[in-house]
TrEMBL record:
This is DUF4872 domain-containing protein. Pfam families: BtrH_N, DUF4872. Transmembrane segments: none annotated. Residues 48-185 form the Butirosin biosynthesis protein H N-terminal domain.
Amino acid sequence: MTGKKQLKARIRARMAKTGESYTTARMHVAGAAGPQTNHGWTLHGGRHSASAAVANVLRNGGFPVSEPLVYLAGGGLGAGYILWEFKRDQSATVVLGFRNRWQYPQKWMDTTLTRLGVPFDVHTTGGAKGASARLSAELAAGRACVVLPDLYHIGYWHAPAVLDGHGGHPVVVYREDGDGVWVDDRNLAPLRVDRARLDAARGRVGSYKNMLHALTPGPLRLEEAVLEGLRDCAEHLSGSSDSFSLPAWRKWSRTVVDGSAAKGWPKVFADGRGLAGAMLSIWEAVEPVGTDGGNHRDLFADGLDEAADLLGLPLRDLAAEFRRIHGLWHDFAETALPETENRRLRELTAAVRAAVAEGSAGAADAESAAAELWALKAEATPPEPGFFPALGERLATIHRAETAAVAALRAALPAQ
């Protein structure tokens, strides 16, 4: 038992220091571990919630495919930035979009499955009973389902009540068991959720209320899907939108130092309130240690390496460039939330993510770490506003690098 506690502590310490995901940190600390199987379902883990959900359903259905290739098939990378201010508790949260169609979860899932040639059914309803009955029917028929529960109501992330209704990310439900269900949220050990809690979480967010995708794994049209996804990525990120394409990074780099704009950071954070929380939300979003896979540039790079062989295209140099860009994002996150001054905040964030990866066995650890995290977050000392120019410079560098890399991607793809 003591050995297990020491191993967990070492993994979580590495996550907090480096921003790595649980899987990556565990591999560095303890080496690769074989996946666990629960009631016939193999828990492969994963990096990004949506691409991992699709890959894990297909793997368990007998049609193995890597998560990076699923990510490419879905359109690869995206870009987006929103600053939310909440007057009721004087807080601010930075929402970042790193995946194609990040603001449209159903469109991403429908497009990805269609490209891959995976048969699926979509079910939505305003009624809780109908939604619950449909999920039970699909599970009884042996079909794993992808659902979108609210992060607060699902429970095992132990999010605070202020996040009630703020949404969540896709998870797989693969088995019903009395008054509970077994879920795959990239956890590496079995995770059981109370059925009433899941039903409430599925019905909380109006824009995708009770949405369910029931998949029927089968042979994939992988080459076509990956090529279509890469073309989609290149076209999308070459767009002019400063909300949902690469110009969003340029706009953000200017907003960070603009003291006159309504959403300019020197104006929004003039009294320092909410700034510490905003910096933590940036670190959680950019680094893989957060809830949804980080900035994805490393995941995309892995996909490009695999696609180079799959499609016979010159993509390896681009893969190396996107790994470099992933490093630029890491440096940006370190600037936003330096490890030395924020060690405990980072340790607690890593502890929550690690505990979820450990399944139901980590529930007590997740609850304890989350309670301390949110209490500490409310009392955290904000950094000095003088660091805004450093953030702006790093964002401008990222914008230039990604713009050039996307242009190179367009040039590397065959004409239609």
